[in-house]
Amino acid sequence: MSLSFHYAGSPAHIVFGEGASQEVANWIAKIGCRRALVLSTPQQKTDAQALATKIGPLAVGVFSGAVMHTPVDVTETAMKLVGESGADCVVSLGGGSTTGLGKAIAYRTNLPQIVIPTTYAGSEVTPILGQTEGGRKTTVKDAKILPEVVIYDATLTTGLPVGLSVTSGLNAMAHAVEALYAQDRNPISTLMAVEGLRAFRAALPEIIATPSDLTARAGGLYGAWLCGTVLGAVGMALHHKICHTLGGTFDTPHAETHAIMLPHTAAFNAVAVPELLQPVAEIFGEPVGGGLWDFAKSIGAPRALRDLGLTEVDLDKASQIAVENPYWNPRPIDRQSIRALLQQAWEGRRPE
Ligand code: NAD
Prior knowledge:
There is one protein chain. By secondary structure, this protein is α/β, with parallel strands linked by helices. It folds into two domains: 13-156, Rossmann fold; 162-347, Up-down Bundle (Dehydroquinate synthase-like, alpha domain), CATH 1.20.1090.10. It is built from 13 helices and eight strands. The protein has helices spanning 24-30, 45-55, 72-85, 96-109, 162-180, 187-209, 214-233, 238-250, 254-270, 278-284, 288-298, 312-323, 335-347, and strands spanning 13-16, 36-39, 59-63, 89-94, 113-117, 128-133, 136-141, 149-152. It has a six-stranded parallel β-sheet with strand order 1-8-5-4-2-3, sandwiched between helices. It has a two-stranded antiparallel sheet with strand order 6-7. Helix 10 runs parallel beside helix 11 (288-298). Bound molecules: nicotinamide-adenine-dinucleotide. Nicotinamide-adenine-dinucleotide is lined by residues 41, 43-44, 68-69, 94-98, 100, 118-119, 121-123, 126, 128-130, 157, 159-160, 164, 168, 231, 254-255.
């Protein structure tokens, strides 16, 4: 066998366990900190306050203003509190929006981060930060952005609504599917991607059936860790380009957009790299796009872009933007083929 690849293992501490978030004060001390600022969205404020109480004297405050897409003005407000409180680390409790705020603070201050993820977005294990200012989203990649400690505690995720669990899971799966054909993939990223897909194949139907099932919830977090790790490790392609275009230009919701697009982008690329996507066919059924679409339908996922408020005129604009400065993709793209792909996703048709 001829092997040639580059693999960089993540230096982050990854902690799994029911009730593991109870140990957060110990982790604050272990990383040499004494003044933690707890972050959350407004919706998770009560949980963040309860966490700060649990942390006790090592917590110096709670900032519950995190919102989607990390607007710079919100970060600046939080930065004031960082300064006033003398915080020496942040504890982010929540999904990608809260993790994004913690990363934005770390990017500016180099403060260590402890993240307790409560969705499956996977941002907690990537060195990537997307920020918005004046309606424009920019992305930076920097070692400072990668959180130092991630605590996956299923007991904190039983309240994640079923609909969000489904779209968030499919969002994570999209990272893994694209990692399978990434130009810079390596044997470890492929192992993690396949294991992540298997984890969600098993966990999502169980989560819908019994949202309080801790074993299923832990399976979702396990999938989130694996899929997020490959998102941070290898390059993404057409699927992420289209989702960033739709989210950035038409403000479509992040996880739903990924959930709807995944079967279509996978079907499109399966034509070029069927052997690389064979694990997806084995886990979800043949053909690759149809199998993913059937799975998404079986778990009640949204399947049509038109349900997100997009019009057919928007699809013309989106296909134009998606082919400008394209990401590398295993199958060549042109405006016409992307327009057809978007039409299929807009109508919610099963890809062949
Ligand atoms: P989110 O963090 O916005 O969460 C969605 C909503 O669900 C919020 O109101 C949140 O408070 C609530 N919520 C989260 N967990 C909950 C729980 N367990 N119980 C009840 N409510 C809960 O959504 P998301 O999809 O996790 O994150 C999306 C954001 O993350 C986007 O801005 C996206 O760009 C970013 N993201 C970044 C990366 C990266 O690597 N930089 C990766 C993935 C996502």
